[in-house]
Amino acid sequence: MIGGTYIERVWLFPKPVFGFVLDTLNFFIASMMKNFPFHLSLPSKDLQKTKKFYLEILGASLGRSTDQWIDIDLYQNQITFTKAGDFNFEYKSYRLGTEILPSFHFGIIVDTDLWCKLYARLSPLDLDITTEVTFLEDKVGEHLSFFIQDPNGYMVEFKSFKNNNEIFSTA
């Protein structure tokens, strides 16, 4: 307990200062609560290969699972893979600057330090991984990005923004 008794707390933190501390704490808590984790459910061609890729290659954690589905904890986000066997999966693409990107992909936004460590660790492995690219260079939303293909054919993007305040900026 800060300051001991109620009288000591009031004396140590007069109302304006104590109010500021509470307002700052409430702002911090509200900001944290805005970052809701996402959930995504996708079909899987092979649950065991998928599990191995996400746990051993990407360093994710395993959540609940059965012989029909697995939950993967990828940076506090829940991806459920369901047993589906072979399915038809075609990549359609789009252009961003001079790059052609897969339309259907999902990704994780991480800080630059973690992004660099991930790229350095994953790029020498015998995986389907793109080279690092800077998108929107010298523009709002500038970010580093690379894609890696999982055993199901999904492209997983890892991106790091130069300025996190620009993640959703439009101008």
Overview of the structural elements:
- This is VOC domain-containing protein.
- InterPro entries: Glyas_Bleomycin-R_OHBP_Dase, Glyas_Fos-R_dOase_dom, VOC_core.
- Pfam families: Glyoxalase.
- This protein folds into 3 domains: 1-35, no CATH class; 37-87, Roll (2,3-Dihydroxybiphenyl 1,2-Dioxygenase, domain 1); 89-171, 2,3-Dihydroxybiphenyl 1,2-Dioxygenase, domain 1 (Roll), CATH 3.10.180.10.
- It is 28% helix and 32% strand.
- The protein contains 4 helices and 10 strands, in the order ααβαββββββαβββ.
- The protein has helices spanning 6-12, 15-33, 47-57, 112-122, and strands at 39-44, 61-65, 69-74, 77-83, 93-96, 99-102, 105-109, 133-135, 143-149, 155-161.
- The strands form 3 sheets. Strands 1-4-3-2 form a 4-stranded mixed β-sheet, with helices on one face.
- Strand 3 and strand 4 (77-83) form a beta hairpin.
- The protein is globular.
